[in-house]
Specification:
The chain has 153 residues and is of the alpha+beta class. The protein has a single domain, classed as Nuclear Transport Factor 2, Chain: A. The chain has a six-stranded mixed beta sheet with strand order 2-1-6-5-4-3. Strand 1 and strand 2 form a beta hairpin. The protein is globular.
Length: 153
Amino acid sequence: MTDRRQALAALLLTPFAAGAATGATGEVGSRAWYDRYLAAFNAHDYATYGAYYADDVAFTGQAATVIGRDKVLDFYRGVATKLDEHVDLLNFLGSPTLIAVEIRTTLHVKEDWPDFRTGPLKKGDIRRSNNFAFYDIKDGKFTRVRSANFSRG
């Protein structure tokens, strides 16, 4: 990130940056706390990353809009039968009430998925995208997750 972009981000996002600076031990909304979530997500550890979701979490992403922790986990279990998905964290801003991230998602297609919501997938394909994601947090749980794609490659 350039010095100008860093200065602008620091100015505009001071509440998030302050939250990210604390929590070296993993308090809610800290980088360490989110890193544990992302590691569990990448490992398909549904119990661990599912514990981050409120019962009535509202999830909106490229491939689905789902309400409820169990439905989100069922969605990802279904995805895992057809894709190996891995998410890399590129940038993080966090506080106890909101996390904003830039992530790179890599999909390794295990079987054809002609009606995948973002376009047909063929076995053996690799699809990468960069995305922004926002996580609203209440009582230590994600209550709303929103992600949007901003580039493919």
